[in-house]
Write a structure and sequence with these properties.
Length: 398
């Protein structure tokens, strides 16, 4: 080992002794640095977790529904979808639910009593929809009472569901008395009230009847459109596959429409969340670095006599600067290790408390090195201050 190596080893030992000689001050300084780095690590980790959560939320709220209908030219000729269209679509791998929807061309008023009050308000003309059994699942409907099932459809029972808005207009608030509605002179028993739908909000303001009932009572001839609920992301794929699945011989007669997806909003939200949390972490970390600088400068002022004595014994300016830089770097490294551990634990705890999937950035494992760098930068001025003291001036404090 060369003389230079021995000297550097001795200076490092002296620096470690200097750091550990004031354990109370060391702990407070470590706490400031650890809090700053813990905040940075926690915010970066939470930003990654939040971004993943934002992406998952956008996927859940993204356009998941495909609408299938006859092509424009066929629709102008009064064409409807083939009878087996719903079953053909349900066989596609990414389809969750499917159901047909047709708005009937009826002009009759809808009322909830058999007696018409000549002095009362005129009965409203509510839209009437013919649907398959699977439509309510496809649009995510929440129904109070009973929904349609295969039995109602097979028997073509004269039953109906009312949208919540339509029920309020007709004065129907519950199903306890078995209410009925009259479309013209046709009576329908109300078996349920639709309170909420994920899409196709027009259902809330109308009367919904099974397709066989619509065929028997109102002359329904076939489905005008098919609503398909798909898993997130493959909506475009299902829209392209639907015409082939329904009519392989003439796929151009069917059109599948998937709502456009826009990832700009998701990207902007993720960027804003990351920037805000990262800024808060950096500000807190800088506060910890300023704390190290203050403590090291105070340490230099308290050890002026020691510095003067070492200069008289042959220590150079570089020796003193190196010693104080090692002290501040040691504080920064220890604070970085403690802060990184605390930050990871905090981010994991917050994620688990909110039932999120924790996301840990591998780069965060280098955070102790960042703490070391902060310590070196924060100790640069105090180290320069220690090296610039003249021996005679420093010895006056003894």
């Amino acid at each position: 080992m060369t003389r230079r190596h021995v000297r550097a080893h001795t200076q490092v030992l002296e620096a470690l002794v200097g750091v550990s000689s004031r354990p109370g001050r060391l702990m407070l300084t470590l706490l400031g640095e650890a809090l700053g780095l813990a905040a940075l690590v926690a915010t970066v980790s939470l930003a990654a977790t939040a971004n993943a959560q934002v992406a998952a939320s956008f996927d859940q709220a993204s356009a998941r529904q495909v609408t299938v209908r006859p092509s424009e030219s066929r629709a102008q000729q009064g064409a409807t979808l083939p009878r087996g269209a719903e079953r053909s679509i349900e066989r596609l791998p990414d389809v969750v639910a499917a159901g047909s929807l047709t708005r009937l061309d009826l002009r009759d008023a809808t009322r909830s009593t058999t007696v018409t009050d000549p002095q009362g308000l005129p009965a409203p003309v509510l839209p009437v929809f013919a649907t398959s059994v699977g439509l309510l699942s496809a649009v995510g409907a929440q129904v109070e009472g009973r929904s349609f099932d295969a039995g109602y459809a097979a028997r073509a029972d004269a039953v109906a569901l009312l949208g919540a808005a339509a029920a309020r207009r007709l004065g129907i608030h519950d199903l306890a008395d078995g209410p009925a509605v009259f479309i013209g002179d046709t009576a329908l028993t109300v078996i349920g009230i639709v309170h909420r739908v994920g899409t196709h909000g027009e259902l809330l303001g109308g009367v919904v009847v099974p397709e066989p009932t619509a065929a028997h009572l109102f002359g329904w001839r076939g489905a005008a459109s098919l609503v398909v609920d798909v898993r997130p992301r493959p909506a475009d794929l299902v829209a392209r596959q639907a015409p082939l699945a329904i009519d392989p011989a003439d796929p151009t007669s069917i059109v599948g429409v998937a709502p456009p997806t826009d990832t700009t909003l998701r990207t902007r939200v993720q960027r804003d969340v990351s920037s805000l949390l990262l800024l808060l972490g950096i500000v807190t970390l800088l506060a910890g670095g300023v704390g190290i600088a203050n403590i090291m400068l105070l340490s230099v002022m308290e050890r002026v006599g020691e510095i003067g004595l070492r200069r008289c014994l042959g220590a150079t300016r570089g020796d003193l600067m190196f010693q104080f830089l090692v002290e501040s770097a040691t504080i920064g490294l220890l604070g970085g290790i403690v802060g990184t551990s605390a930050g990871i634990a905090i981010s994991m705890g917050v994620a688990l408390a909110h039932q999120w999937t924790p996301v840990l950035e591998p780069r965060l494992l280098l955070a102790p090195v960042l703490g070391l760098g902060i310590g070196v930068v924060a100790g640069a001025f105090p180290a320069w201050r220690a090296g610039s003291l003249e021996p005679a001036e420093a010895l006056r404090s003894l």
